[in-house]
Amino acid sequence: MKKKYQNGTVFAVPLSGGGYAAGVVTHLDGSGAIVAYFLADKFSQLPSLKAVNAFRVGSALTVRRLADVGIVAGKWPILGQYAGWCQADWPLPSFGRPDALDDELRWIVEYVENDLITPRCEVHTSSADARALPQQGYLNAAATERLLSHLLSGIPSIPMTSRSSVGKEQK
């Protein structure tokens, strides 16, 4: 069965308190694993593709590895293809995770395009840079919806025609 989406597909995620988050599929491996960049905006209604096309990689609220089941099952509506999609503008990031035994240490985890499940390499570091990386983890649809609902809970909903604002991942 052919996937209904590709790199550059823009989709919406319903939030538990009402409204929607919007994301862009930036990497997929063909097995159901994707990387998506999510906007820092909360939309009161299903966002328009035009509103989401103002989004740029540097203004992502969060970047996550997740399962595509929300898109494939139709629970997360596809809004269309990102205008002027260029894969080089949306790099596959390294991810960071804490060390289980030492709070001062972190792991930098890297993946390759054709396998977003198995790490290509993991590097132990104490670097502050690793703390700024997107969090390591693989989310199912329900966890993705809960995370986005939490991250966007204090942000007022904006009308569909408003442009995306600049934001950073919240903890």
Short description:
A hairpin with a 4-residue loop joins strand 2 and strand 3.
Task: Explain the overall architecture.
By secondary structure, the protein is of the alpha+beta class. The chain has helices at residues 49-52, 69-72, 128-131, 141-151, and strands spanning 9-14, 20-28, 33-38, 62-67, 78-81, 95-98, 106-110, 121-125, 138-139. The chain contains four helices and nine strands. Strands 5-1-2-3-4-9 form a six-stranded mixed sheet.
Annotate the secondary structure layout.
Layout: E1 9-14, E2 20-28, E3 33-38, H1 49-52, E4 62-67, H2 69-72, E5 78-81, E6 95-98, E7 106-110, E8 121-125, H3 128-131, E9 138-139, H4 141-151
Parallel strand pairs: 4-9
Antiparallel strand pairs: 1-2, 1-5, 2-3, 3-4, 6-7, 7-8
Give the overall average pLDDT.
Answer: 87
Rg over CA atoms, rounded to whole Å, is: 16 Å
Protein structure class = alpha+beta
Q: What is the end-to-end distance?
A: 38 Å
- The number of distinct β-strands equals 9
Helix count from the secondary structure assignment:
4
**Assembly of the depicted chains:** single chain
Q: Which bin fits the share of residues in helices?
A: 10-25%
